[in-house]
Amino acid sequence: MFDKVLVANRGEIAVRVMRACEELGVETVAVYSEADKDAGHVRYADEAYNVGPARAADSYLDHDAVVEAAEKAGADAVHPGYGFLAENAEFAAKVEATEGVTWVGPSADSMEQLGEKTHARKTMRDADVPIVPGTTDPVEDPAEVTEFGDEHGYPIAIKAEGGGGGRGMKVVRGPEEADEQLESAEREGEAYFDNDNVYLERYLENPRHIEVQIVADKHGNVRHLGERDCSLQRRHQKVIEEGPSPALTDELRERIAEAARRGADAAGYYNAGTFEFLVEEDPDREAGELLGADTDFYFLEVNTRIQVEHTVTEELTGIDIVKAQLRVAAGEELQFSQDEVELEGHAMEFRINAEHAADDFAPATGGRLETYDPPGGIGVRLDDALRQGDDLVTDYDSMVAKLIVHGADREECLARSERALAEYEVEGIPTIIPFHRLMLDDEAFVAGTHTTKYLDHHLDQDRIAAAQERWGTDTESTADDEEVLEREFTVEVNGKRFEVDLEERGAAAIPTADAGGGQKPEPAGGDDEASGGAAADAEGESVTAEMQGTILDVTVAEGDEVASGDVVCVLEAMKMENDVVASRGGTVTQVAVGEGDSVDMGDVLVVIE
Ligand code: MV4
Would you place residue 475 in the very low, low, confident or very high pLDDT band (cuts 50, 70, 90)? Predict the structure, then answer.
């Protein structure tokens, strides 16, 4: 085994890899950018090296800086995690060429060959792994596209040879689109992958995304660790992964997993790896029905790295995949047979992204973890690199943690996930926890009938907004903008405990019974700038009714100058008279109500400019 491993990554995956090293008695080296000086992976490592500025291209992606750090530290291996340099064959070759340093990954050759999709398709076809009907050589002429369409029908996918993960794919719906989409796919291939070769596949309209975890050693042993279902995706970004797939019969599961094993074997692959497949969904499938052994499935691509969602498989199999990676890289033989791999129960991974789900999943632009209190208990695993008080680093991807839940079966896993997500307390940054809670309440997801199209095409966006409203917490650090006085009380009523949180914003004090006579503060409804017991407040420039009631008196007229705190009208509600006051000074430009009018909560009473 190695003595010292440099982890060429950041965040939760860097900590995940270091945890495996720790258990193996291996020393750990972190690299970090200027933006990550105080990051969790730096805290965790035995030693750490600055590899450059915040911009990833100048630090985490700088081949020479990373290799130099490994040499300086005297590390004898480099683990790339996922993302950044993990699938960069050139970097792998550079590490392999460095005296005394081992690359924790497949050979650079095999990364290159599997990274070239036409090559991978040929290898898989020759190994009897079903590939999507299409070409295994590049196409250049739009006529080749229309000829393929004539023979196999539309739609057709045009994919970049160097592509993957959703980039460089174009869909042709009819012959008239062949020209334009071919050109566009070639352009994208050139721009993203420096390779304008493209190939064709029949486009599957509504596939499930199933991937098989593989581990293989340098002695020709290949094992599969079962599959994960990653069908819940948004714009090619996975959000929840689970295993086993809720859609497959055991027969189909076994066929797909065996195909992956055959493919890895044929490619002479070693390291952990993932074989991605598309599985043709049956649009009429009902909840409770499963896809049978004769269902079509097709190889898509190989991910030659550890993946974000490897944790799902670890929970199911009890196998530490990162440790297996390290052992294989050190030349050891896998110590378990295929028969010894057993899947137990059901597992799900929830990506905890710092994003505003209701605002098109816009990544957070800053914030501090005012509160960070993750869940625990039976079946709950958290992979993160965070601590309460940390500032959010926004220079890289928005995933800040992963919650992985394991249960005896899918039903228990779902219930446990609900419990865990409800326990998860994060304040100061937005997260998509409310979105996950929505999914656990979603008919299609709970039934397991969702496909890769579900989030982008079928989910009503209003439901996300409602979930955010219901389960979202403070997303902005309030400390800087506004004075907020928070007080927590515990009260006991008839021997039962109640927790009461009080928040006061601005200068206003808790109203006491005053001139208006006997008003009580309204229950906190968000923007409660309640001053002096006013029953309504100014929202922007409108003074609105804060409860349903009747106007007893209007004390201002258009053109009047008012000062903050002046009474503008009197509202009778709940058998009480409430002075409605202006919360800012100005000129009354509109009086929307008159004496005797009945108003609803939220109605505009007076506008002040
Ligand atoms: C496809 C496909 C349908 N038919 N290929 C998208 C990412 C890239 N890895 C391959 N992708 C797809 N390839 C054919 N022939 C649909 C997708 C696809 C998809 C695949 C997996 C997970 C999510 C997806 C979302 C949209 C499209």
Answer: low
Taking phi over 0 as left and psi of -120 to 50 as alpha, with beta for the rest, 149 belongs to: alpha
Q: Which of 45, 46, 40 is nearest to 11 (CA)?
A: 40
Q: Which atom of ligand 1 is nearest to the CA of 205?
A: 3
- Scored b (16 or more CB within 10 A) or e, 500-514 reads eeeebbeebeebeee
Query: Which residue has a Cα nearest atom 15 of ligand 1?
Result: 203
- Side chain identity, residue 48: A
Angle formed at CA 554 by CA 550 and CA 556, multiple of 5 degrees: 155
- Pick the residue whose CA is nearest to atom 7 on ligand 1: 166
Element (H, E) at 414: helix 410-423
User: Residue whose CA is closest, atom 12 of ligand 1?
Assistant: 166
Spatial distance between the Cα atoms of 414 and 406, rounded to a whole number of angstroms: 9
Its pTM stands at 0.80
Please give the distance of CA 274 from its chain centroid, rounded to a whole number. Answer: 19
In angstroms, the CA 424 to CA 237 distance is 22
Answer whether 46's CB lies under 8 Å from 21's CB: no
Q: Which residues contact 351 (CB under 8 A, 6 or more apart)?
A: 238, 239, 240, 308, 399, 402, 432
Ligand 1 centre distance from Cα of residue 569 (Å):
61
Check pocket membership of 248 for ligand 1, CB cut-off 6 A: no
Structural domains present in the chain:
4-104 (3.40.50.20), 118-128+205-344 (3.30.470.20), 133-202 (3.30.1490.20), 352-477 (3.30.470.20), 484-519 (no CATH), 541-608 (2.40.50.100)
Checking if the pLDDT of 237 tops 50, the result is: yes
- 233 CA distance to ligand 1 middle (Å): 11
CA atoms of 10 and 160, how far apart (whole Å): 29
Is the separation of the CB atoms in 377 and 458 below 8 Å?
A: no
Read off the pLDDT of each residue in 435-461 and give the average, rounded to a whole number: 94
Is the model's pLDDT at 53 over the cut of 70?
Answer: yes
| Distance from the alpha carbon of residue 570 to the mean position of ligand 1, in angstroms | 62
Cβ of 374: how many Cβ atoms within 10 Å?
17
Question: Which of 452, 453, 457, 459 to mutate to test ligand 1, by most ligand atoms within 8 A of the CB atom?
Answer: 452
